From TrEMBL:
Keywords associated with the record: Hydrolase, Metal-binding, Metalloprotease, Protease, Signal, Zinc
Gene3D superfamilies xref list: Collagenase (Catalytic Domain) (3.40.390.10), Endopeptidase. Chain P, domain 1 (1.20.1050.40), Neurolysin, domain 3 (1.10.1370.10)
Protein name as annotated: M3 family metallopeptidase
Taxon lineage: Bacteria, Pseudomonadati, Myxococcota, Myxococcia, Myxococcales
Entry-linked SUPFAM superfamilies: Metalloproteases ('zincins'), catalytic domain (SSF55486)
Keyword ATP-binding attributed: no
Residue ranges of domain Peptidase M3A/M3B catalytic in the record: 279-731
Organism the protein comes from: Pendulispora albinea
Length: 745
C-alpha cells in the first residue's frame, strides 16, 4: 500500500495524552499475492529487485501470514534496504502511470493499494528501531535518510501522471457504481494528494519538496535532542535520607535504574515521566523534588547542543510557508481541513469551553493543598506556606486525596500489578469484542523483553492477529507509551491479518518481583490497548482505510473510551489483586476510588489543555518570527495559566508536534475524542452497564471495525444515534455543565 505524505523517521505513533510522543504507526500491510482487485484486472507489478542477503527486503516469512524478521536485523542494513525499497516502489508506480489503458478503479486505485508493500515492511522495522533501539549508529542513519525519505514521498505525491489517473477515477461517472468503501478510498487518495500539493505548479512543487525535506531533518534532530536529554540526565541518590517518603516499589525501581547506569548500590531518578512522576508524588524532600522537576521540564531547553528552540522556530516558519503554498491561511487550517473539527476555530472553541472551569477547579485544588500544607507546618512549627510550587503539586495533591477521601495512592498501588492488569485488558477485550489472547513462542522479537500473543475470535476460533508487548524502559527507547501497527488488516487480495504492538516505559524490576503501577499508568495501559483493539477489530477490504488509519481527532476515541473499563468492579475484583496476599482490592477501597473519581481533574485538564492551546496558537501565528520560550511564557500568561502548573509537554520537548507533522495543530484531538468518549460511555450506563452486549456490538460494528470506510461523524451517529454534546464530558470531569450545546461532529 502506498502511504502518501510519508515523512520517515520522526513520524509520531499513537500515544495517550498522558504519555510522551513517538515514532509513527506502521504504514500498511505485508505483501500478499492472490486474486485480482475488484472492478477489473490490474497491471502486474514488476518483480522485486534482488535483495542479496538483506533480510529487510525479503517478504515476511513464518507463521501467521508472515512476521517481521527482527532477529536478523543489523543497523547497517537499513540504508540499503530503504534505498532498494524506494527503487522498487518507483518501478511499481511507473507500471501504474505508464499503463496505456484508461484509468479505472482497478488499474489505478487498487493497483496503488498494492504498491509499496516492500517499502512499507522496511519502514515498519526502521520506525521500530527509531523508537525502541535508537543507538548512536542508528541515529547517524536517521540523520542521513530523513531528507531522502521526505524527497521520495514528494516524488510520488507530486507525480503528475499518477495524480491525473487518480483524478480521472475521482471524476468518472463510473465511480457511482463502486462500493461505498471503494468510493471512500478514491476520495481518500485524491484528497491526500491534493493536500500534499499535487495541483501546484512545478516551481511551487519544488519548493514544497524542499520544505518537506528540511522539516524531516529538523524533526529527526528534535527527537534526538529530546532523547539525549532523557538518557543523559539522571539524579543519582546515594543516601538513604534521599529516599524519604518513597514507597518500596519506587525505591526498588530507582535501585534497578541506578544499577543499569553502573551505580549499583545507589538509586537513580531517570529523566523520563515514568520515573519522575512517582518521585514528585511521594518524595518528602522539597529540594530533590525541585531538582528532578526542573531537569524534566527543561528537556530540549538547556541552551546547549541539545537545545530545540531554534529548531522549533524554523519548523514553524517552514510549516507556515508550506500552508500558504497549499492554499491555506495557516498550518493549523491545513492540518484540520480533513478532520472532524474541520477548522481551528471549532477546535479552539471546545478547548476554551473546558479551560475556564478547569482553571477554576485548579484554584480550589490549590486552596485545599495550602490548607493541608499549613496544617502540617503549624504542627511542625514551620512558617506558613504562601504558595504551591509546580514541583509541590503532585506531592500535596496526594495529601489532599488522603485528607478529603481517606484515599492513599500507596494503598492502591500494591493491587495494581502490571501483569494482572494485562490479564484484565485481555478479559475486557473478550467481553466487549470476543477476543482471546494466547502467548506464542517461535516469533522473532526485536528485544528479549518483548512478548507476543496470538489473538483469536473466542467464539469461532478464527485467527485475528498478533499482539506484541514491550513494557520496559531501556537505553535508546523514547519515553512514554504508544501503539504501532506493523501490518494492517485487509482482504482485497486475500485475507491479511493484523499485527500490532503496545510499548511502555515501566522500570524493569528485579527478577521475580512484580511491576506495581499507578492508577494513571493503569489507565494509560488500557488507553494504548484501546488503540491495539481498534487495529485488531478492523474489518475492511483496503489497507489505506483500515484500522487506526482515521482522522486524528477520531483515532483517540476508541482508546480513551477503553480507559473507563479500568475502574469497573468486574476488572478490579478479578485483576486488582494484592501482590503479596493475592487478595482482591477491598470494597471499601473501591468505594473510595469511585468517590474520588473527579479528584485533581483541574490539574489534569489544565496541564493538558495548556499544551493543546499553545500548539494551536503557535500554528495560527502564521509566518511571524517566534521565540518559542517567550511565546510559551506570554501566551500562558494571557490565558491565565495557574503558576502552580506547567504544561504537560513544554514546547522544547513537545515531540507530539515537533517530531513530525502528525499531531501538529492537532493536540486538541484528545479533548475532541474525549467528548465522544464521555458520551459513548453513557450509552453503556444508560443501558445495562459497561458490559452490555448490544451496545458493545454497536460499538464494534460502527466504530472499531470500520476504519476510515465511512465519515467518522456518520460512524459515531450510527453507533449512538445522535451527535455527542459537551455535557457528558463536563459531567465526567466534574466541571460545571456550561457549554452543553456544543457538539463534536
Amino acid at each position: 500500500m502506498r502511504n502518501a505524505f510519508f515523512l520517515g523517521a520522526g513520524a509520531v505513533a499513537l500515544v495517550s495524552a498522558s504519555c510522551a510522543p513517538a515514532a509513527q504507526d506502521a504504514k500498511g500491510p505485508a505483501h500478499s499475492a492472490s486474486a485480482a482487485a475488484p472492478g477489473g484486472s490490474s497491471p502486474s507489478a514488476p518483480p522485486p529487485a534482488p535483495n542479496g542477503n538483506n533480510p529487510l527486503l525479503a517478504k515476511w516469512a513464518g507463521p501467521y501470514g508472515g512476521v517481521p524478521p527482527f532477529a536478523k536485523v543489523k543497523v547497517e542494513q537499513f540504508k540499503p534496504a530503504l534505498e532498494g525499497a524506494m527503487d522498487l516502489e518507483r518501478r511499481e508506480i511507473a507500471a501504474i502511470v505508464d499503463n496505456p489503458a484508461a484509468p479505472t478503479f482497478a488499474n489505478t486505485i487498487a493497483a496503488l493499494e498494492d504498491a509499496g508493500r516492500t517499502f512499507h515492511d522496511v519502514t515498519v522495522i526502521y520506525d521500530i528501531w527509531s523508537s525502541n533501539m535508537n543507538s548512536p549508529e542508528f541515529q547517524a542513519i536517521e540523520r542521513e535518510m530523513a531528507s531522502k525519505l521526505a524527497a521520495f514521498s514528494d516524488e510520488i505525491n507530486q507525480n503528475e501522471k499518477l495524480f491525473k489517473r487518480i483524478e480521472a477515477v475521482y471524476n468518472s461517472p463510473e465511480k457511482a457504481k463502486l462500493t461505498p468503501e471503494q468510493q471512500r478510498l478514491v476520495w481518500r487518495h485524491y484528497t491526500t494528494l491534493v493536500r500534499a500539493g499535487a495541483k501546484l505548479d512545478a516551481t511551487a512543487k519544488a519548493r514544497a519538496s524542499e520544505i518537506n525535506q528540511r522539516l524531516a531533518t529538523l524533526f529527526t534532530t528534535f527527537s534526538q535532542n529530546v532523547l539525549a536529554d532523557e538518557e543523559n540526565e539522571a539524579l543519582i541518590l546515594d543516601k538513604e535520607s534521599d529516599l524519604a517518603g518513597l514507597p518500596d516499589s519506587v525505591r526498588s525501581g530507582a535501585a534497578a535504574a541506578a544499577a543499569a547506569r553502573g551505580a549499583k548500590g545507589k538509586w537513580a531518578v531517570t529523566n523520563t515521566r515514568s520515573s519522575v512522576e512517582p518521585f514528585l508524588t511521594y518524595s518528602t524532600r522539597d529540594d530533590l523534588r525541585e531538582k528532578v522537576w526542573k531537569t524534566f521540564v527543561n528537556r530540549g531547553d538547556g541552551g546547549g547542543a541539545h537545545d530545540n528552540n531554534k529548531i522549533i522556530a524554523e519548523i514553524l516558519k517552514l510549516r507556515a510557508e508550506r500552508a500558504k503554498l497549499l492554499g491555506y491561511p495557516t498550518h493549523a487550517h491545513w492540518r484540520l481541513d480533513d478532520t472532524m473539527a474541520k477548522t481551528p476555530e471549532r477546535a479552539t472553541a471546545l478547548m476554551e469551553a473546558v479551560w475556564k472551569p478547569a482553571v477554576a477547579r485548579v484554584r480550589e485544588e490549590v486552596a485545599d493543598m495550602l490548607a493541608v500544607a499549613n496544617k502540617e507546618n503549624k504542627k511542625d512549627k514551620k512558617p506558613a506556606k504562601q504558595k504551591i510550587a509546580p514541583w509541590d503539586y503532585r506531592y500535596y495533591a496526594e495529601k489532599v486525596r488522603k485528607a478529603k477521601y481517606d484515599l492513599d495512592a500507596n494503598e492502591v498501588k500494591p493491587y495494581l500489578q502490571l501483569e494482572k492488569l494485562r490479564e484484565g485488558m485481555f478479559w475486557v477485550a473478550g467481553e466487549l469484542l470476543n477476543f482471546s489472547f494466547t502467548p506464542v513462542s517461535g516469533v522473532e522479537v526485536f528485544h528479549p523483553d518483548v512478548r507476543v500473543w496470538e489473538v483469536k475470535n473466542k467464539q469461532t476460533g478464527k485467527h485475528v492477529g498478533l499482539w506484541y508487548f514491550d513494557p520496559y524502559a531501556r537505553p535508546g527507547k523514547r519515553s512514554g507509551a504508544w501503539m504501532n501497527d506493523y501490518r494492517r488488516q485487509e482482504r482485497f487480495k486475500g485475507e491479511i491479518t493484523t499485527i500490532v504492538s503496545n510499548n511502555s516505559n515501566f522500570v524493569k524490576p528485579k527478577e521475580g518481583e512484580p511491576v506495581l503501577i499507578s492508577w494513571d499508568d493503569a489507565k494509560t495501559l488500557f488507553h494504548e490497548f484501546g488503540h491495539a483493539l481498534h487495529g485488531l477489530s478492523s474489518d475492511v477490504t483496503y489497507p489505506t482505510v483500515s484500522g487506526t488509519n482515521v482522522a486524528r481527532d477520531y483515532v483517540e476515541f476508541p482508546s480513551q473510551l477503553l480507559e473507563h473499563w479500568v475502574e469497573t468492579p468486574e476488572v478490579l475484583n478479578r485483576f486488582a489483586l494484592h501482590y503479596k496476599t493475592g487478595q482482591p482490592i477491598p470494597q471499601e477501597l473501591l468505594a473510595k476510588i469511585q468517590k474520588a473519581s473527579t479528584f485533581n481533574t483541574g490539574f489534569a485538564a489544565v496541564e493538558y489543555l495548556s499544551s493543546a492551546l499553545i500548539d494551536m496558537k503557535l500554528h495560527l501565528a502564521g509566518s511571524k518570527d517566534i521565540d518559542p520560550d517567550a511565546f510559551e511564557r506570554d501566551t500562558l500568561k494571557s490565558l491565565g495559566m495557574p503558576d502552580e502548573i506547567v504544561m504537560r509537554h513544554r514546547t522544547p520537548q513537545f515531540s507530539h508536534i515537533f517530531a513530525s507533522d502528525d499531531y501538529s495543530a492537532g493536540y486538541y484531538s484528545y479533548l475532541w475524542s474525549d467528548t465522544l468518549t464521555a458520551d459513548a460511555y453513557e450509552a453503556f450506563t444508560e443501558a445495562k452497564g459497561p458490559y452490555d452486549a448490544a451496545v458493545a456490538e454497536r460499538l464494534r460494528k460502527n466504530v472499531f471495525a470500520t476504519g476510515d470506510t465511512i465519515d467518522p461523524a456518520e460512524a459515531y451517529r450510527a453507533f449512538r444515534g445522535k451527535d455527542a454534546g459537551i455535557g457528558p464530558l463536563m459531567r465526567k470531569r466534574g466541571f460545571a455543565d456550561s457549554g452543553a450545546k456544543k457538539t463534536a461532529k
